[in-house]
Design brief:
The chain is mainly α. It has four helices and no strands. The chain is rod-shaped. This is Small VCP interacting protein.
């Protein structure tokens, strides 16, 4: 009975032995595929839960520009709060 099991296992392994050689890409292709997959995962993680990522990017840039203008027009630029003693 164990002889039949061995025969079927051998047949299964023999058909899989040649398939592994054709599937493995060269190291450069593999490296490129891994880099693309990592970039895709990073984008998915960044955008998780955000319906419109482009709008969020625009909003962030606008906010950064506003903060930059506020910092540049600080105390010496006028336009801020002024102390009055009276």
């Amino acid at each position: 009975m164990s002889r039949g099991v061995r025969k079927s296992m051998g047949m299964c392994l023999s058909c899989l032995s040649g398939a592994g050689d054709d599937v493995t890409p060269d190291p450069e292709t593999r490296r490129r595929q891994l880099a693309e997959a990592a970039e895709k995962r990073q984008k998915e993680t960044t955008c998780r839960g955000i319906k419109n990522p482009e709008a969020l990017e625009r909003k962030k840039k606008k906010q950064e520009e506003t903060e930059k203008q506020t910092m540049n027009s600080g105390p010496s630029g006028g336009g801020g709060l002024k102390w009055q003693v009276g």
